[in-house]
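Input.
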Amino acid sequence: MPQHHAQSRGVQRPPASRLVVLDRGFRLFFLAAAVWAALLMVLFVLMWAGIDIAAPALSIIDWHAHELLFGYTGAVIAGFLLTAIPNWTKRYPVSGWRLAVLFSIWLAGRVAMAWSEPLGPWPAAIIELCYPLGLAFVIAREIIAGKNYRNLRVLLLVGLFALADALFLYEAFAFGAADIARRGAVSVIVLLIMLVGGRVVPSFTRNWLAQHKLKSVPVPFNQFDAATMAISALALALWTALPDATWTGIALIFAGLANAIRLFRWKGWLTFTEQLVLILHVAFAFVPLGLVATGLSSLFPDTVPPNAALHLLTAGAIGLMTIAMMTRVSLGHTGGVLHADTLIRAIYGSLVGSVLMRFAYGYAYETALLYLSASFWVLGFVLFLFRYRYMASALNDPAFTARPDP
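Output.
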């Protein structure tokens, strides 16, 4: 059997768990995230049609938003960080029963939120918040035990994620709608994409260009990127608190244009022949698109519907960037060839189609567009589960070829 990919990076692997899916965090949490993303969309459409499948104490819209922002995205964040941290600390990955306990807490949160009305909103909130706090504890333990103190700053991001979750639930349960907290949660996650994507996208692009002996290279993270992050944080803070203010719209448009310049400097058009890299650029493109559209919706709500603009950031930036990372990380850490095959390209195409249909629904309000968007979304994640099903039963991709993740 080929060596486990983590060993190629100097990280020892503990004895394999009896359940392969508990071997590494990305296996369990990426598969669970895909299952929940597909199932949640089916449940949402059924409940939207008047069929009461679940009994959340939140409105259907807030439950849908919460579970995509904190349920689905929370699982992806766990899968990504629990895979990255062993590379930082050179410690065994969190696996086996410890991973199973963390996953059980995540799953309990999903059940509690789906049945928060009979359970009670505040007991459900306590159960839900155990997950981000538990994830923060696991991350802190691993980083401190590995004496990798400089990466403790990751805890700040996870802490903001937990705070956003708590504020979302408080506003939704106390006031009946989580309008402010919903925007705040989207802002936190989009900023996380700007930060992590701003490192990962040019890095992976640079490696791919070097492999293909192309001399052009992306501009690395510098003061312009830092200034763009600061401007974006200010603009998103204004949008969270004052979405209809003129200055909010101007700030969002300015932040969107700055992020578009960042993206242009990464030379994504040179990766057109490798969709596994190209999708990172496409996903990040929805950050400036979403910011500009949201800014225009603040200034001209009758011309650019706020709901349509919002989904460029959520389904577009968040949805596409998470699936881009899931497909690549899963290949890279199971010894797979870093190439987007037909199924992977179909995953990307389905989710891009979902985003476009959802954006169109914001203008036309044709129910068929909403159902089409949901169908594309479900299809994309079902294809992910089919393509990466081996992660539940095999240490390596059956199509393994000795080609390390750069």
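Residues 178-406 form one domain.
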